[in-house]
């Protein structure tokens, strides 16, 4: 189908200095946990994005000198010519599909420990490094250090050109880069020409831009990636004062502006905390003060919103990290008039979380992300069926939905059955919780795809028993029957049920999602899960008028959500809702409406009255699986060739893991897999031994 003409504007070329991008879709630099450690995976992933139509495809942050070594994070590196040749592979992959390749040169200054390079960190003043309270200090750079730093940056830009990049992004963002540290009053108390006035604090960044333009600006686009607000009020940069003035002072200098808010937790807010387009209010002034093209980010997934951003004069390019991860083919789908095929990012930040753990990023919506090279998976293509099999998938949660979707795309006959009256399993249930609505896109996308396939049939209100499965007549059965939260407090910290939870009703997240509630009064949410569910239960119940205490054995509320960049946002929200937070606490017993807790450090006992909401762990719903495999002869007699478990029914985990398991089942179906071997390609490092 030809594209709707109202989207034509998204496909206009934009000039960025000496280069021109074919459209307004700009995959901004984003970390992915592959970088220098898994370069083949990173290169293939970037190539797929260019194939999907992104006009500009950028690297992640690329460190350009050992004094800015971000180990243990697996970013890309451009320390020398060898690194340039690795990144050259990415340029080729992007060019092959007509995209422009951009490199983001980054030095994290006082925000690194240099734990691999062992160089002394550097910054505007003497200061302990901010990275993980690491016990070393960044030393104050003198004028000679600043000269050296500028030289390293210039040389890196030249290396980037030799690698084949078309665009170099000069970075002062996220409170994590050396030029940003020089710019911030709270970091920079220098008394020389690099400290004091805004002009002085901006000097280093201006010099980097000027020197990059001078070195490579004749052939490469030079982009300024700049945070205009830090959401710190007058303690930080604000778009209404210094953020604005800084842009104005350099307005015409770069070939393009890529503006955002800082730090990363604010720039990449999850959908729980910010809606699509949340950065507009901060960055919309930039186009008023500069004639250069401006790029904006803000988790844009709707082409109509993108058009509106451009028509309203907010920006010229739609920047995207997460939307390009969830759907590398977003631009192509708009171009080909296939909007119903767009796989919208749900704003969960699983991608960021894996990067922050120093592992290859994963995506909840796009299970092929990071598997392009390693497993040969493609977000849009999957090999056709190799038999006439009819597959029964039991359970239409994320695992079952994705299995049915991918098997359907392969051409198999698929029946998907679910006991409930609505599809989606846990995503349908969880997206009804406060501020998680966007999560249901996991379900929406797949249901939309079923509508285009005649070989996938979905049956709701169909609770299947062993007998019904045997009667059904499928060749293969996949159980995606999910899991159930425990009610007794057993989990990571407690290995025995909390005394009293049997006699006195406690409410698991499933109970709450089913609409059950204790009488209005006090509740204690006991969170030994440490991700989002405990905090969401607290948020929901506090919003309904309960007096909520959240007790956790962790050091803080939702400690794991540090990785998904949400921890601070979660804690702030709960405190604003009046939730009492008790870190380092375990529940000892529940007795006659009294919940006895104790501090894990001091042993001191604390009592709270009311009901307990334990958020600790889930157990697989695998009864049907075990019932079926108990009698192989009955399976054989009805022609069932295999019975498999996937998703939470196999191992309760994230929604991303369930989607991946569903995809994996479909990808591996009709293929011999060596269960003793490694199920993907691995990188072999060749050691330089001997003379
Ligand atoms: P996952 O995350 O692994 O996809 P979910 O818990 O989200 O798991 O989804 C499991 C789904 O399976 C739920 O929608 C549930 O209603 C359904 N289900 C569980 N047991 C049966 C059954 N015996 N027959 C049909 N559907 C079932
Ligand atoms: Fe979006 Fe979540 Fe995928 Fe990241 S992991 S791209 S936030 S859907």
Using the alpha-carbon principal axes, give the shape.
Answer: globular
CATH architecture of the largest domain: Alpha-Beta Barrel
- Which range best describes the helical content: under 10%, 10-25%, 25-40%, 40-55%, 55-70% or over 70%? 25-40%
Oligomer: single chain
Q: Any idea what the CATH superfamily of the largest domain is called?
A: Aldolase class I
Bound molecules: adenosine-5'-diphosphate, iron/sulfur cluster
Mean of all residue-level pLDDT scores: 96
Number of domains: 3
Instruction: Look at the helices and sheets and give the structural class.
Output: alpha/beta
Separation of the first and last Cα atoms: 62 Å
The beta-strand count equals: 28
**CATH fold type of the largest domain:** TIM Barrel
- Report Rg: 27 Å
How many H/I helical runs? 23
**CATH domain class name of the largest domain:** Alpha Beta
Largest sheet: 8 strands, parallel, barrel
> In which order are the strands of the major sheet placed?
3-4-6-10-11-12-13-14
Strand % is 15-25%
Family: In the N-terminal section; belongs to the NADH:flavin oxidoreductase/NADH oxidase family.
Pfam families: NAD_binding_8, Oxidored_FMN, OYE-like_second_a-b
Organism: Dongia mobilis
Cofactor: [4Fe-4S] cluster; FMN
């Amino acid at each position: 189908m030809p594209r709707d003409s109202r989207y034509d504007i998204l496909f206009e070329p934009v000039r960025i200095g000496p280069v021109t991008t074919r459209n307004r879709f700009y995959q901004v630099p984003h970390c992915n946990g592959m970088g220098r450690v898994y370069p083949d995976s990173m290169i293939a992933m970037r190539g797929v994005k260019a194939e999907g139509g992104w006009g500009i495809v950028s690297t992640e942050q690329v460190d350009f000198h050992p004094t800015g070594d971000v180990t243990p994070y697996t970013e890309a590196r451009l320390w020398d010519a060898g690194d340039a040749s690795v990144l050259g592979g990415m340029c080729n992959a992007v060019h092959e599909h007509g995209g422009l390749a951009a490199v983001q040169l980054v030095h994290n200054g006082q925000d690194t420990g240099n734990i691999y390079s062992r160089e002394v960190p550097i910054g505007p003043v003497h200061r302990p490094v901010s990275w993980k309270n690491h016990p070393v200090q960044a030393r104050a750079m003198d004028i000679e250090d600043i000269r050296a730093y500028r030289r390293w940056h210039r040389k890196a830009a030249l290396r980037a050109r030799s690698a084949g990049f078309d665009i170099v992004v000069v970075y002062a963002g996220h409170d994590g880069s050396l030029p940003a540290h020089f710019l911030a009053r709270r970091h920079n108390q220098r008394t020389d020409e690099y400290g004091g006035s805004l002009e002085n604090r901006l000097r280093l960044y201006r010099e980097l831009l000027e020197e990059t333009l001078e070195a490579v600006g004749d052939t490469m686009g030079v982009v300024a990636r700049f945070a205009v607000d830090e959401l710190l009020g007058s303690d930080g940069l604000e778009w209404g004062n210094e953020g604005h003035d800084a842009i104005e002072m350099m307005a015409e200098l770069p070939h393009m502006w890529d503006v955002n808010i800082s730090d990363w937790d604010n720039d990449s807010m999850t959908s729980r905390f910010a809606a699509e387009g949340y950065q507009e209010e901060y960055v919309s002034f930039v186009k008023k003060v500069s004639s250069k093209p401006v790029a904006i980010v803000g988790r844009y997934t709707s082409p109509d919103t993108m058009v509106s951003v451009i028509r309203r004069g907010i920006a010229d390019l739609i920047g995207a990290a997460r939307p390009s991860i969830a759907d590398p083919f977003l631009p192509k789908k708009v171009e080909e008039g296939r909007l119903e095929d767009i796989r919208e990012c749900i704003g969960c930040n699983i991608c960021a979380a894996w990067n922050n753990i120093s592992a290859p990023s994963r995506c909840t919506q796009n299970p092929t992300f990071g598997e392009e090279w390693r497993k040969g998976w493609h977000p849009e293509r999957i090999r056709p069926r190799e038999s006439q099999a009819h597959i029964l998938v039991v359970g239409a949660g994320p695992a079952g939905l994705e299995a049915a979707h991918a098997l359907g795309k392969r051409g198999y006959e698929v029946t998907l059955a679910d006991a409930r009256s609505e599809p989606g399993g846990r995503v349908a249930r969880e997206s009804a919780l406060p501020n998680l609505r966007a999560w249901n896109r996991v379900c929406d996308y797949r249901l939309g795809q079923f509508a285009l396939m005649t070989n996938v049939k979905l049956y709701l209100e169909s609770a299947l028993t062993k007998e019904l499965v045997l009667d059904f007549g499928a060749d293969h059965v996949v159980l995606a029957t999910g899991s159930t939260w425990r009610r007794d407090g057993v989990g990571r910290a407690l290995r025995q049920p909390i005394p009293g939870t049997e006699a006195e009703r406690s409410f698991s997240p499933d109970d709450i999602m089913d609409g059950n509630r204790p009488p209005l009064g006090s509740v204690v949410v006991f969170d030994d899960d440490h991700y989002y569910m405990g905090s969401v239960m607290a948020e929901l119940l506090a919003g309904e008028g309960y007096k909520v205490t959240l007790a956790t054995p962790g050091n803080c509320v939702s400690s794991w959500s540090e990785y998904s960049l949400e921890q601070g946002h979660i804690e702030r929200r709960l405190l604003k809702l009046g939730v009492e937070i008790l870190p380092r606490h375990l529940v000892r017993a529940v007795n006659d409406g009294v919940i006895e807790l104790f501090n894990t450090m001091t042993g001191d006992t604390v009592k709270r009255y009311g009901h307990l909401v334990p958020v600790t762990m889930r157990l697989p719903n695998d009864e049907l699986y075990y019932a079926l495999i108990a009698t192989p002869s009955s399976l054989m007699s009805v022609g069932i060739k295999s019975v498999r478990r996937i998703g939470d029914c196999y191992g309760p985990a994230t929604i991303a893991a369930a989607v991946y398991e569903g995809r994996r089942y479909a990808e591996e179906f009709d293929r011999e897999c060596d269960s003793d071997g490694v199920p993907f390609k691995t990188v072999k490092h060749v050691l330089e031994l001997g003379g």
